Amino acid sequence: MRTQVCIIGGGPSGLLLSQLLHLAGIDSVILERHTRDHVLSRIRAGVLEWGTVEMLEKAQAARRLHEEGFPHDGVLLSAQNRAFRIDFKALTGKRIMVYGQTEVTQDLYDARDAAGGTIVHEAQGVALHGLDGDAPHVTYVKDGTEHRVDCDFIAGCDGYHGVSRASIPEGKIRQFERIYPFGWLGVLSRTPPVSDELIYANHPRGFALCSMRNENLSRYYIQVPVDDPIGKWTDTAFWDELRRRLPNEAAERMATGASIEKAIVPLRSFVAEPMRHGRLFLVGDAAHIVPPTGAKGLNLAASDVHYLHEALVAHYGGDRLALDHYSPRALARIWQAIRFSWWMTTTLHRFPDQGEFAQRIQESELAHLANSATAQTEFAENYTGLPY
Ligand code: FAD
Ligand code: DHB
What we know:
The chain has helices spanning 12-23, 36-40, 50-58, 63-68, 88-92, 101-114, 235-244, 248-253, 297-316, 326-348, 356-371, 373-384; strands spanning 5-8, 28-31, 47-49, 70-72, 74-79, 82-87, 96-98, 118-120, 124-129, 137-142, 145-150, 153-156, 174-189, 199-201, 208-214, 217-224, 259-273, 276-277, 280-282, 288-289. By secondary structure, the chain is α+β, with helices and mostly antiparallel strands. It has an eight-stranded mixed β-sheet, with helices on both faces. Strands 8-2-1-12-19-18 form a six-stranded mixed β-sheet, with helices on one face. Strands 3-7-4 form a three-stranded antiparallel β-sheet. A hairpin with a 7-residue loop joins strand 9 (124-129) and strand 10 (137-142). The two termini are 34 Å apart. It binds flavin-adenine dinucleotide (FAD) and 3,4-dihydroxybenzoic acid. The site of flavin-adenine dinucleotide has 36 residues, from helix 1 and helix 9.
């Protein structure tokens, strides 16, 4: 097979890049390790910045998003069992959209199918070759047969555990990392959400988050030790703990029910620099991870795709320097989101070694945020998404 851009990974960043390149007349092939059903069954992000919504519009994959998504104009934060609201619309004129990552991925698969795009699922043993030269290629095994894709460029959209970043020689890449000493237990349940808007709660027992997918589908998270056995968290234990961490009136009206998904995820901040090695470009989780507290992971994947697709279009239009700008441009925005996600994580969670001083600083941060329009505007700017 020969294509212009070989994309490794059929998650949201690979699909969005492929679709935008197609609309600009640039050919691509996606190699995905798993089946489509597997990719679509991963319950992950739920909050889209408006820039991400506009990217999906540009990709002609936003019809259902506008029919079924829920625009939100603000968010609630709670500390000391009292909630306060940050009004994005009033402070910045911007809003966010609540629409699940599984739905975004489904819409992008539909768009690629409608355009006749090539997506190879269950591509095993993907290997990248010739990254330093002018003619890279990718090999993989499907149904026991080895295949080869020749291309101009490779886009590594294969997530944190993918092969792309691992193919860059040591010494050619710098990695920055912080691992947080706790995880999130996430639960999806077919119950009405406890609140019309998201609630981020700081509590002496640990952080809690109330989110949603629709009128009858709720998504909740609580901070837990990352090595807790999942079996310890029966539905009853989860609902009891969640309610303890929320303001009383939210806890009292919480509708509970059987969970339909339950998992514990670790929290880390991670950045790999630069996001390019020769003809390989890293995109999304392949290059960076944020703790989920700021809802930035999927949104950063979308802004990376914005910068890379613009650079590729400019390159094929004759601008031979365009691709040099991809990594610095993407990284400038990524570090802003890394900072904001770190700050939200630090301010809202209980750390195992949190002494009294750190405790008082945390309380002061939240009191300042509750009382200062300037602090709320800064929060709203970051949460709704910095400009591209
Ligand atoms: P991925 O979604 O990881 O996709 C990579 C793809 O590459 C996968 O399909 C994988 O199978 C494939 N792949 C991997 N290795 C190979 C290989 N060797 N060969 C071929 N294919 C390969 N983000 C937000 O913006 N907002 C949120 O509210 C939010 N909440 C989250 C909640 C949770 C619990 C979690 C876990 C994450 C959350 N995120 C959130 C983060 C978001 O889900 C990710 O940032 C996003 O999925 C990144 O997309 P991606 O396409 O770069 O990578
Ligand atoms: C969701 C996940 C997040 O990490 C977040 O900050 C907000 C919402 C969600 O899954 O709905």
